[in-house]
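User: Teach me something about this protein's shape.
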Amino acid sequence: MVGINLYFMLFFYSLIQVIVYLLYVLIGTIKYQQCRDFINSKVDILQIKAMFMYTIWNLFGDLGHLIRTQGASIVVNLLFGTSGNASMGIANQISLQSSNLTNSLNSSTAPEIFRRVGDKDLSSAVNLSNRVNKIGLYFILVIAVPVICFIDNIIDLWLVDVPPYCERLCCCFLVMYIIEKFTIGNLVILQAVNKIRKVQILVFIGYSLTPFLPFLGLFDLFNLTGIGISCIVTMLLTRVFIMCIYRRSFKIDSCDLIGKQIIPTCTLVCIALLSRSYLFTQYNEILVLAFKMLLVAIATAIFLFYALMNKHEQRIVLNKIKINKRLGAL
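Assistant: First, the predicted structure itself:
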């Protein structure tokens, strides 16, 4: 009976996804003339082939992501049982929630990057992609740094029985997602100019190594934390390759990347990781913990405002704040 219910759930879930995408096609056809022109145009074999290959290369990256997430879960389940899976689940949940804001930013800016590339305004698209990287790092660090600092307190207040190595896995996954944000805008513009073959192959290879690297000694040295360290290493490798491809494609100077992004980020993450054990105390009141996390978030936001952004970007932010204040006063 349970198996039949699962089949029904899978069927209806798939049906909903199909209906949603069909509605996208229908609304686009009704609203935009370009969609109607595309439907009424003659079949272009070369264009269909290009779109098919574009889909295949993206599928490589998605498959690597699947191997990283599900492969790691299978390995942890085999070696550490339910307690290891519980730690993985909690760490994934906390890290994903911390990066949701940055993911929303990426989704909202990607269409604009594609539009600028389509309008042959490549320099503007490159500038926007670089700005998306900075803003994405800003958002995730403001959230992730307080979480890393007080992760022991958060887990202790949240759970009655804390699974082993849960706090360490949370820190590893948060660091992994911070590394990912260095190239979120770069990856979009590489997709927009259709330079994704090498990128997706490297993402597939790098992510696919995640379940296997811990067997080279990480499990022996760090126990369950080895899978988290493996995630950091493979994410770092893929992002370095993406940066190299991006720099080669658009002839970008790496000085701003190192001085304005890598150094401030590494400084904050190292301080948060080193101070984690010193900040841990038993809190009976969640409001005390929330207040201290807020103070760390504000300090992080102020530091990043001056360390991550250049003078021009700082003026833009300050002008926006002044405009909003005037509108609020009215």
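Now, about its shape. DSSP finds 13 helices and no strands in the chain. The first helix runs from residue 2 to 31. If you'd like, I can walk through any region in more detail.
User: That's plenty for now, thanks!
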